[in-house]
Amino acid sequence: MDTKNTSGAPEMEKSKIHIIVEIIEYIPNAVVSKTIIKKTTGNITVTSFDAGEELAEKTSPFDTYIQIIDGIAEVIIDTKTYKLKLGEGIIIPAHTSHCFNACEQFKMISTIIKSGYED
User: Fold this and answer.
1) Are the C-beta atoms of residues 66 and 108 closer than 8 Å to each other?
2) E strand residue ranges, the chain
3) Confidence (pTM)
4) CA distances from 7 to 30, 79, 84, 93, 108 (A)
5) pLDDT at residue 13, as a whole number
6) Is domain 2-113 classified as CATH 3.90.230.10?
7) Closest alpha carbon to 3 in 40, 38, 33, 35
8) Cα dist from 53 to 26, 94, 100, 101, whole Å
9) pLDDT in the model for residue 20
10) Which residue, 68, 66, 52, 69, is CA-closest to 103?
11) Domain spans, the chain
12) CA 90 to CA 41: how far, in whole Å?
């Protein structure tokens, strides 16, 4: 598996309209990520998965919101499997193990908020 970050710049151009599903392409046998916004308080990333690809299990110290913008994704959160289709989203709780499997191609937006946990 190949994991690429095609974003040379730290984030996308501001005050410009983007068609979110078109800002990242599918690349055979790869998972590709592009940063939309990257700040110390959080970031937004769009990722494409070719069919058969996966991202290994990991844990984040922050809540992460995932929204599917193309295809169908398999998201495993704490051993429970969720199938998310176009337009659906889910919050992955902080400190929870999770991974992604692409039974078919899919694209997603992930939003991580790194502030506000003091409340």
Assistant:
1) yes
2) 2-5, 30-39, 42-49, 54-59, 64-77, 80-85, 89-92, 97-101, 106-113
3) 0.87
4) 15, 31, 25, 26, 16
5) 86
6) no
7) 33
8) 11, 24, 8, 6
9) 87
10) 52
11) 2-113
12) 20
